[in-house]
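User: Can you write out an input/output pair for a complex, sequences first and structure second?

Assistant: Here is one pair. Inputs:
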Amino acid sequence: MRKVKVITGSQASLSTELAKEFAITIIPYSLNYPDTSLKEGVDISTEDFYKTLRKIDSLPSSSPPAIGEIINCIDAVNKDNTDIILITLSSRYSQMYNSCKSAVSEGGYKNVHLIDSQGASAYQAMMVIIVAQMALAGKSLDSILDCIKDFNNRSDEFLVFDTLKYLAKGGRIGKVKALLGSMISIKPIVVHRDGITTPLAKARTNKQALNKIISEIKSKVIDRNMKIAVIIQGIDVEGWLIEVEKQLREHFNIENLWHSRFSAVTSIHTGPKVWSITYHIL
Amino acid sequence: MFVYVPGCSFMFLVVPCMEGLYIMSLTKGLTIIDSAKYLEIIDYTVQRIEENFSLLNTMNLFPVADGDTGTNILLTLKNGTKSITHIKNSELKYISAQFYESLMVNSRGNSGVILAQYFKGFHNGVGGSQNLTLEGLFNSLDSAYHSAYNAVSNPQEGTILSVMKVSVDFSELKSYESGNEALKALYEKSCKALIHCKNQLEILKEAGIIDSGAFAFTFFIEAIYFTLSTDTLKNKKQCISEWQKEIQAYTPEYSYQFKVWKEKLKTNLDPLTSNEDLKYRYCTEFLLDLESTKGNLQKELLAFGDSLVLIDNGSKYKVHIHCNEVEKLLDYSETLGTVHRVKVDDMKYQHHNSFDLDNNKEIFSPSANQDISILSIAFSKGYSDIMESLGADKAIVAKDSEKLNILDLLTALSSLRSSEVFILPNDYSIKDLIDKACEISFQNTHIIHSKTIPEGISAIIAFNETDNLAQNKENMTGAINNVKSVYVTHGYNENNRDAKSYFALHNNSLLLSGDCPKTVLNNSINRLIEKSHSLITLYYGESQTQDSINDIMLSLSTNYKSLDFEFLSSDHPDYHYVLAIE
């Protein structure tokens, strides 16, 4: 029986623990400072990076791995009787998908399946984990690819921002632009649609945002017969995430709840105090 | 007898007659315009104007340099074409009628209204015909010109009217050997007239450019020439391109004189008083359905302002006028019949905007993709700033509900370029005024019934541009239902004139009172708070000292530890505190 291996970029919201648990291979992104370049997760830990987030003007830029590095990563797990699923973030956010495409064609691989998740952050991570789970359970390649095809209908990530400054600076603001100058504190709730950040609604407080997200999920997850997997994560909001978990467990039948974390690369675009809830109908 | 001339694409019919032999091309008697051709001509015109609308806007100097001639003409014609594409298989007379009627209702600006009347005249020329011959065409153009000329109260040479005048009149027709030559002559004459207009109008003379309305109109003549002439594509394109080059020399980018004039204007231009030339400030348009015939309507209306263009379709009139006393004009018009589709542009504001000399920005681009705008009423600048920062497209500041007038509402509505507008009254007592403005305005207005400022602000926050009209209405109304508002103001005790009392108003009635704001605020929250509430926003007015504000902030956050608070300045003179509980 052929084995399936899963690879993704370090920019996905996958904690090292989760990556290990599900045997996911990570290709590191680079954080580029004026005088040096650090590999995320290798040269600097994500937690250490968060500490530098407040100084918005001295943040590095980020870049996806070079084609050569992608090839090396693929080669490292490419054994006989193996199929490889390489999942990237939306091609509208970054060059990564194109780089992977080039890597696959240059390497001449016949057994690498390149997938554009059409999302990022924990949405992407959810896809990666679910796929890796299936791979570890020995599911066939075809059933895994079918699951991926249907993924969009069964999953969503809701991100709640504390500030839009970082998103605007990084240029990934998409359709959320309108709120930049707001004089009242607003917590924008944002989702991935057609591969870009799109506003879903606005809340005034985290509590309101959570209520809104729960009612949105309820419109798809109709009753407790539907089991879901959930990822929650946030930057500098540990206390709040406890409340989030409590509420989610009250309202839904959760089979797996994973605590993950935003990657350093993603955090450059979100800033601190951001949090997100991702669900997937099993 | 028929004569075949080698090398020529026509047959010539030689007709003996009293004046002697003269040659008349076969094509002259043939149909050249049917419904399909009419549509083709209009489509071509719209396309050319669309290519150039931004240039037309920058060239707009007469009668008022408000930078919107291109936009107005484009939108007027586009709305017109929308109304005829679905009836393209009808007879010519129906299409030309529908076209001008649609122009009349949808026309924008001075040029738009003139064009509406022009096409009405054209339709009169068509009469009951199924098709037009070449003669029929020139007849219609002539009738169109006279119709437009008669509608303008103060017709000027050097404007769109001068180019309209240039239709080949009957006596000249005979001198042309073929219909193609006649059409080419028509086009060339129009271009010449266009270039000549820079010598005819004072402002154009100074600025060294041609009139934008006239320029836009020549695209219609170009459409006629290009669509109807059976000359080769190469020849037609060449002719057009040569004339366009000549015309180009008198457009802002290529006219040296314009650049000099613009520089001079820049140094003399004080943004606040640039409009000293504006004798009449408001560009007002509306439809008037007369109940009975009115003697000299034109004279009566001229008492209010100038630049009057009055066109009619039976008892339905379209009025376009520049005036100052808009309310008086509308009141007067209402004594004559029904007033509707009102649009009022404040030209003082537009005039200033059009001279965005540094950026050459496109002003009021018609392709801006905004379907829904939000208009919100605010009672201080503090509130209007907050509302606009949250996404209200326009927040009108009215000191109190009595100071708000219909002129403010109409100009605000007209400045919003979307077809749908959400209005947030944010008050209990301005319903009648808002209803009135909505009734007569030309846009599709939807009143979202916010009765207080907090309700309005919550509604604006609930708006999402990616949702549709119905969804947004639902969400905004839902947000209003979820917020409780309290206004804290002060008054004097009936019994003891020296004792100040603070009153808390909720749902337009007195909730409670006390001798200091802190007590009143705490008690109000106590009275209204429910388990589902999690956030209180407090807006403080301009008369409160920083100390008392700090004191209250501390008191509230201590007393209500489980709630989130936000404190914001509103600048309002009378409402010392406004609470939003949600």
